[in-house]
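Q: Predict the bound structure with nicotinamide-adenine-dinucleotide.
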Amino acid sequence: MTIMTNRLSRSTHPELTLHPERMIQFGEGNFMRAFVDWQLQQMNNQGLFNGSAVLVQPIEQGLGGFMAAQDNLYTVLLNGIMDNQTVNSREIISSVSRVINPYTDYESYLALAEKDELEFITSNTTEAGIAYLPGDRADGTPPKSFPGKLTALLHRRFELGKKGFVIIPCELIDRNGEKLQEIVQQYAADWNLGGEFLQWLKEENTFCCSLVDRIVPGYPRDKAAELEAELGYLDNVMVTAEPFLFWVIEGPESLAERLPLAKAGLNVVVTPDMTPYRERKVHLLNGPHTAMVPLGLLAGLETVEDVMNDETFSRFVKQLIEDELIPMLDLPAEELLSYAGAVQERFRNPFIRHELTSISLNSISKFKTRLLPVLLRYQQERGKLPERITLAFAALLLSYRGDRVPLQDSPEILEIFTQAWSDPASFAGTILSNTSLWGQDLSLLTGLEAEINVHLQQLEQQDSRAALQQLVG
Ligand SMILES: NC(=O)c1ccc[n+]([C@@H]2O[C@H](COP(=O)([O-])OP(=O)(O)OC[C@H]3O[C@@H](n4cnc5c(N)ncnc54)[C@H](O)[C@@H]3O)[C@@H](O)[C@H]2O)c1
Ligand SMILES: O=P(O)(O)OC[C@@H](O)[C@@H](O)[C@H](O)[C@H](O)CO
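A: Predicted complex:
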């Protein structure tokens, strides 16, 4: 095999244009680079935007060094089937201008407030990022939390008498824009930044809620050397993604003109109410992901594709979606079925490797958001438990014993499970009654504790495939 020595850079690719900075983006992770920055590139390719994003690392450790070493260029590899066509594309993305690490260069970070051309702010700091950190300090260089950092930047902008920003967070939490705005306002109050600043925040800035959708498995570790040989350059931050993309932004109509994503042919909707889109995506895509993870891992499967290629498991996913999830959503069933069919196609994407363990991160809070609301509604409306969600719940609780599958969750949550599992006989009752995990006492839900105990025993005695076989027929 040829040994590659050339790193991707502006000198290896002098034809790539550098566009003026128009967006500040918190988060330099795989998702944002394959989603937002990829879309900026598409608009730039068509001469519709002429703008780049300056990236800010939300935490001290990050990819800034790797990005700088290749002049902030990187490759996005799209693999999958879209509109019945196989897509296997590679594109060098040149829509990132630089990455600022505010922990080592706070002055450059605050200096962003001076640049009039910067009009948009986007972010993805994981679900953990949009959080109020009591005691975060205005004189921190930088403040610790993402909303704290943003408040400091916005305040500098206000002091300079400049116009505000359109702020579009992409974190997968409900009402992300409103939540971010509330926390920024809270810091403004904590830090005594004054009533005029609060007014400027409200009147000069637009916080938009948004919902993102693109499966981004990230750096293709297993194929990197092969791909670099094919590309003809070294790239430490290349990223693989599916071709499908969807971005719903709850914002003013004028946004579609200022950020002409849809005009560039991208699947982006600007709407006054994104609720139905969020419900559909979180329950029909993220919900099945979260259900398949513990069941799949307990059966020794590794990827979403493994699950979908297994007859029993794929039948389980289909039944879960059609019999338990769709009937509980207040949207036209036909539209939901069509969306769900497309989702299952995306799960089957033979060209990407989406690890179940990568989805398993923080599975308890994911279950609470993605599947628990449906389980509760089903029980309330039908007077019985949804069997598939309940089995997945039991598998999740069993997996959190930590002896059969690797766990990735906060130390506090892992400790709660260690304590509860120390007495297996009372485990189900203890864990279901823990309101800090579920927001309510689930041991009070008729039949749940008994069902969970039955499934726990079943999953101990047989493997999860056998339990699924009994259920899906
Ligand atoms: N990968 C996908 O398929 C996908 C699809 C849609 C949405 N998302 C969302 O994107 C998020 C990031 O996924 P990724 O694949 O880019 O991961 P990644 O590990 O490549 O990037 C994580 C990013 O989040 C930041 N971050 C991590 N912990 C943080 C914290 N505690 N506070 C502030 N910032 C923090 C990091 O600095 C980095 O910029 C996920 O949590 C998910 O909500 C991912
Ligand atoms: O990104 P996470 O860890 O919150 O969730 C894992 C997957 O469910 C998620 O990344 C989906 O692939 C994504 O939401 C598709 O748009």
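A: The domain at 21-271 is CATH 3.40.50.720 (Rossmann fold).
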